[in-house]
Structure formats: structure tokens, C-alpha cells
Amino acid sequence: xxxxxxxxxxxxxxxxxxxxxxxxxxxxxxxxxxxxxxxxxxxxxxxxxxxxxxxxxxxxxxxxxxxxxxxxxxxxxxxxxxxxxxxxxxxxxxxxxxxxxxxxxxxxxxxxxxxxxxxxxxxxxxxxxxxxxxxxxxxxxxxxxxxxxxxxxxxxxxxxxxxxxxxxxx
Length: 170
Hints:
Helix content is 23%, strand content 34%. The relative contact order is 0.14. By secondary structure, the protein is of the alpha+beta class. It starts with a helix and ends in a 6-residue tail after the last strand. The model is unreliable at 15-19 (pLDDT under 50). The chain folds into two domains: 2-111, Immunoglobulin-like, CATH 2.60.40.1550; 119-164, no CATH class. The strands form three sheets. Strands 1, 3, 6, 7 and 9 form a five-stranded mixed β-sheet that branches. A four-stranded mixed β-sheet has the order 4-5-2-8, with no helix packed on it.
């Protein structure tokens, strides 16, 4: 029995979706590593001071340059002008295998702007909302027409508190 449970868990664990692993970009202090993005870079931030990511802040361009000094690994967060967010692990290496990275739009981890709901989807949501409003309107009318009777009464300091018929919704 334990074998079957273990085999089932192993098979199911293959289908678990986790955060995608980040690519690693290696840089050093002798050469510039160029990163080419699908859209102009609006913002680029590194996590540690031993990594420097430079890009043209006045006139947005498609590429940025990365340099590093020996130290701990870090990360790079880059946002393009269309709101796409890219993130990478940065490591220092004395020898570089690659000097140019061409980044695809599919490597984006998401968009900084919230997704807008299409008008057709919005109409569908409104229809559902109308159905709910209609239901509550009819239920309220039913409660108002039904006979009210007192379940209990409490009197204290000249005030009267009455609990009328209890109604449950769904």
C-alpha cells in the first residue's frame, strides 16, 4: 500500500507548478555584458553594489550594459516601457562564456500593469451581478410580505428589545 501511495505522489509531483527557475547571467570587471530587450528599458535595478547595470535614462534604448566586481551573487530586475518585468540571477565569473544576451518577450515574469478586463467579459460580470441583485430584491420582498412574529422580548431601563422572526438566506 505504501508503494502505491509513494508512486502516486511521485507522479503527481511532476505536475505541480512552481516558480520558474531564473536564468543566471555572468559578468566581470574586465568586459561589458550587453543585454538586449524586446522593448526599450525604462528601469533596471541590481540587488548588490558589486553589480552595475547601466542604460540610457534620457532616451530609452533596447540594451543595457552589465559589469561586476568580485562579491556575492545578486539579482537584476528590469522593466521595459511596455510594463514587462524581467528578472535574472547575477554572478561574478573571471571568464565569460557569453557577452551578449538577447532576451525574448516570453522570458518576462509578468507585467507591472494590471490586466484590463475586456468589455465582453465586463458585460458578462454585470449580467451575473444583475441576477444576484434580482435575487436579493425578490428575497427582500418575500421577507417584507411574510408575517412577523416575536420570538423573544427583553425590557431594560424603559427600553424594549424584540427579536422578530429569523430568516436564513441560502
